[in-house]
Description:
The protein is mainly alpha-helical. It has helices at residues 53-81, 88-107, 113-117, 119-136, 156-177, 184-187, 189-203, 208-225, 229-249, 251-261, 272-284, 309-341, 346-370, 388-406, and strands at residues 138-140, 143-149, 152-154. The chain has one domain.
Amino acid sequence: MAPPVATSDMDDNLYDLEPGEHSAESAATRISPPPDVPRSPEALVPVPVGMDWGLFATVIGLMTLGVVMAFSASIYVALHQHGGNETFFLIRHLIHAGVALVVLLIACHVPYQFWRKAAVPILLFSIVMLMAVLAVGETRNNATRWLIIGGVPFQPAEFAKFAFALFLAHSLTKKTDSNTVGKFSIGFLPYLLVWVFVFYLCMKQPDLGTGIVLAVLLFSMTYIAGTNVAYLLFLVFAGVFGLLTFIIHDPMRSRRLVAFLEPLQYRDTSGFQLFNGKLAVATGGLFGNGLGLSRQKLGFVPEAHTDFVLSIIAEEVGLIGVALVALAFLYLILRGLRIAMRARDEFGRLLASGITVLLGTQAAINFGVVMGTLPTKGLTLPFVSHGGSSLVVLALAAGVLLNVGRGGNPDFALPTLTLGLPAWLQPHRNKTANVRTGNTRVLPPRHGDAR
Length: 451
């Protein structure tokens, strides 16, 4: 006999029935699932088990656009800096895209419950990598952000974004289960301290853009988990004050801010990239000048194939092309939020929300910088900009998001490792992977478990 299904908060303590048993509920209080909706044999809510092909196609489409635009935007730099090899960046980007595709396909088939078990080790690993950058990292353009591993450059700050979102999802789920997420000393302060430490490591590179993305992740995920709004307001005010302090005491950021406010006056100095990026957007018009026919990529827009690739898209395919890219990211965000709302457990909900916020925030900041509505920041356009670290890590994040949408594996479990860490940092223990607290979704004990 199939177990009954409850779809609301009518009875949070409803359990699966043993064969031959009858529920005390009246038929009027039970709602049978539609025959075409797949369900977990144990969960009390519909569980999607198929691939979200819309989200998958959007990611693949953005990656394909990235291959085309990486080649178009990098030809001038490749010819003048790499011995006349015009396909230098194209070949590298194809390799990165190939690795990213493999990572995406693997991640979307790995039960997302695995990442909960690995959350703390992954965060610690990312912190060690950030510290290693400060010690032996490679410096480019006055920033030390790269580790050379086996001859391949890697940017640990990109991985730290995913690691931080994963850690927050894991730990906040524990606080939600124990109803301590609203306590300042338990449900907010530990995460604030972790963020401060990671932010400090990023600022030593320096990398303010990553620090801002991490702050947005902290704010949004703690809010979704149910943290007291007063604590979040404190975070906002403290963040604004700290950001202004960093800008005032850092000559480079001060120049960038002034150039943002007066782009014409500083178009030949600190505002050179911003001014020419906006000029590329303006000269593209509605339909663009044609694919490959950008003029601003001929040495006028620095990093045209990485941080400012959107300006070349605007110049070559026009406002129509930019609007299509924006709609693609909007669709990606909406699908991510849909997956979060329909997740089978609290960890899946928080993890899907965090990944969606990560992708949306980074895309929004990149759009704002290129369009001249935000000061210049070194953040890539997800899946489009040239850059192996960003592309592979974001493909990993997208794959995990797809697996949350598929429902993961409710029976997935790994041996618990305490690692000698404090209780609030230890991996989740003695919990069924399918638990989601709240008034609407509860997983009852399985037949073989003690009731």
